[in-house]
Amino acid sequence: MNLKKFFVVSLAVLASSALSHAQNPIIKDAFTADPSAHVFEGRVYVYPSHDIPAPADYARKDWFCMADYHVYSSDNLVDWVDHGVIVDQDHVPWVNAAGYSMWAPDCNYKNGKYYFYFPAPQKPQPGQRFAGNGIGVAISDTPYGPFECEETPIQGIGGIDPCIFVDDDGTPYLAWSGMGLQVARLKDNMLELDSEPVRIEGIPRGQTEGPFLFKRNGKYYYTFPWVEAERETLAYCMSDNPLGPYEFKGKFMEQSETICWTNHHSFIELDGQWYLFYHHNDYSPYFDKNRSVCVDYVNFNEDGTIAMVTPTLRGVGVTKASGPIQIDRYTDKSDKYVAVEFLNPDTPFDGWKAILWNTTQEREPRWISYARVDFGKTPAKVATMRVISKAGGTVELRADAKDGPVLATFNVPGNGVWTEQSITTEGTVEGIHDLYLLMTNGSHLEVDWVSFK
Ligand code: FUB
Predict the structure, then answer these.
(1) What is the CATH code of the structural domain delimited by 319-452?
(2) pLDDT, tens digit (0-9, with 9 covering 90-100), for 410-430
(3) Is ligand 1 within 6 A of the CB of residue 133?
(4) Which of 130, 324, 329, 407 has the fewest CB atoms nearer than 10 Å to its CB?
């Protein structure tokens, strides 16, 4: 081992038991942002930033605070494994470890190695007050580490939000944000520039950062967060050449309704379907510097332009009927009398509940639906629901539609206690169906999850 380089020990094996289950946000036990997703050997890897609440030695309590990077992976976009810390600010020779500014990273593969790029504040030199941001590289034999950090950042550039794109012919390109959006060709060693940086021109006025460069059907897509009004939308340019010139094409995601000022994203294609990874602030609605990574389907128009993506709670993939089916991550609902709230506002990672209530006796049942539940081939005998109600009520679970086949009918007791109520199913379906939950009687009840066994 080269002792001049610092060896960052990966916690891959130790931490790989941390699983989370589908829906948005996809990481359910930590704040994550700026997701860079890639498919390596058929498995999806996500390299996000890691937001943390500011510790005592970091004065800026109202700002981003990030000390390290984890990598997550999944083989179905539903169950995610946390491989643990791959790079830590304390262990990179050139990084100012008091900075807590390990911002948006990226990773890619070339010549048998995985190259992880990350921006960070540099250690000031003697006599220097502020050294600016460098873009560093850490190298590994696997996508999940251990990663070995280079002793110095890439020479000749500074800034944030590196994105590493490797073209079909093996030529690597680095995109980043620094004095505007930039792109440059890299040498084969992935560590040095092989061209002058090119600034992306033609973007309408508005702050930009966080580039993600990818290729589809021979066209290059230079995509980036862009402030059109108050907060960051996601927008893009297209070109026939990775170094441009690029033509601005507009937005593919509007600014968040959850009042998250930033957004930051990446694209992957898996089995012919494209996916967009991005972040909002679902677990921290009142502080948008503690963010959460989400994923949704993305489609392209006939002419290659990107169709607008609407963020969903449901996310992507299929949920096993054996659950828990977190119905609060709903696909659709009857109206404003169905709402979602944290189970425990003080501990947001406990997740959410769906609340259904009625205002009059003359009414259609309130309902909430959840797309793509896999009931398998063996008919479920028992349906279970975690529910609470003070006055009691009746809940029907139906397949496919709100007037679809009834799977189970629960008479919910009015005891005001969270209960896992199990009953015998009255109908069954096989394969993948949408699930509908209807409150057919009662005035108010709350549901945490549903399952079929
Ligand atoms: O996560 C810190 C910064 O916020 C990123 O580097 C930007 O892209 C924005 O998401």
Answers:
(1) 2.60.120.260
(2) 999 999 999 999 999 999 999
(3) no
(4) 130
